[in-house]
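Notes on consecutive records. When two proteins share a document, each keeps its own sequence and its own token line. Never mix them. Below: protein one.
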Amino acid sequence: MIKMDAVLVGFGTVGQGVAEAIQMKDQLFVDRFGEGIRIVAAFDSNTYAASKKGLNPTELVRTKVGKGNIGKKRPETIPEMLSRLDYDVLVEMTPTNIVDAKPGIDHIKAALNAGRDVVTSNKGPLALKFREISKLAAKNKCNLRFEASVGGATPVINLASELLRCERISSIRGIMNGTCNYILSRMESEGLPWEPALREAQQLGYAETDPSYDIDGIDTACKVAILANAIMGNDVTVHDVERTGIRGVNLEAVTLAAQDKKVIRLIGEITEKGVEVAPRLIPRGHPLSISGTLNTFHIQTDLAGEIIVAGRGAGRHETASAVMSDLWVIMRTKEPNSHSS
């Protein structure tokens, strides 16, 4: 039997979705590994709950929704508690911070320094300190997995780094932000000017009240940096990515593109020339002309040729699906005689 005791840090939409997924998929893990994933501690921004026997995921979510917290005040900082708790894997899901990657990077370092595996959806530490935390994981012989940080339910990292391991990948291009894609799609299909399309995206919950993280291309640039490092072997940060958002895309440009049977899409690019995020003219019918809130990735390889993968890039259970796939792989690597890496 393979045991996995997990600590969840960050219990917002993603954290709650992961707790629900752990409950939902318990029997699947029991059937495969002999035991399911047990949540032995969970933290939100101010409180925590812990039990060596395991916490009930459904009760955790119910308590958070009902009371706005998950338990009692912490006696010390989360990194201090992570260095003392007994667990196998940290699931780090605090909000992305691209200024200094805190508090997520502190949580990840504390777990790795304690010899614990890490699964994270947090883009900040990966987009700013990828090489540092990768070396720390290797030094302490820990798994560091982060499928949920880029594609949500679109498995681009695991696809490229595992299933395409024998390929030489020369480029990755993609639509990596559903908010921008929705706005540009509405401008194209309904003839909406930029501002009304943005307001509609905000009303539907696709865009935040302050949408700059999405529409200025920051979110896409973070994902480009992560992919460049994880798949292409680069050593870049989000600040190395040339970035142009969609604020400058007006209805006239969208109309002119349509007359030429093209669409405008915000594309993240990792090529041998560099890393960039910018609006691009895409021929109608091309895989990167996809509409709506979906993400799509176009991977160019030497043997398989072009690989296209598309799916939902955000959402409670969509992101949880990526976290669960990483937890599954970690459990698989713990099996006796496992040759997984």
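Protein two starts on the next line and is unrelated to protein one.
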Amino acid sequence: MPRPTPTPHEPRLARVAALVADPARSRMLAYLLSGEYASAGELARAASVAPATASGHLAQLLNGHFVVCEPRGRHRYYRLADAEVAHALEALALVAERDGHDRAWDHPERQRLRYARCCYGHLAGELAVTLFDALQRHQGLQENSAGYALTAAGRQWLLGLGLEAGMPGSRRRYAYRCLDWSERRDHLAGQLADEIYRHFTQAGWLRRGSGRVVQLTPSGQHELLPRLTAA
């Protein structure tokens, strides 16, 4: 049998897979999927390892460009390097739970995570999919080479929710689809999705729960949800 031909120009998947494969590092990365900074101590607790062990794992994640570090006085804080890392982790989660997907969400705590959670600055879960569906139903998004542009109808619909959406920036993608880990349907990601999530939180319609869980408040139940589900 002929030996496989080496493929030196292919992606170095083994190096990336090795970083994620360690249980402690994977728990740290999952903790950082909220998009917020966390201290080394917080990440050590999330990974159930000693602080010295956590430091070694974080050094490897830094070297692999999975996380970035921001020194603040005597402390150091970490977050995911960028949205691409977050989306890669979500994609791995989809594959990891491909078998027995529905059973994996039976626990009440996971059901809360499934309904609404924070994903690197934007909303994910069932509520996020509902939001994406509503924007499309109201002809609020127009596809382009980078993902989506916000239409005049979309801008007007968001104004009805009290949000004056910003113009596209030059440093990141404005709006694009992201396959949702729990729903296995698309939700909205990008600058626009971040703005919408911040607005919903500032309006008091959403609030952070434990971990990445996002809770729909009573005012959100009465003021936001009907607008997302209206024809």
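For the record: The first strand starts at residue 38 and ends at 39.
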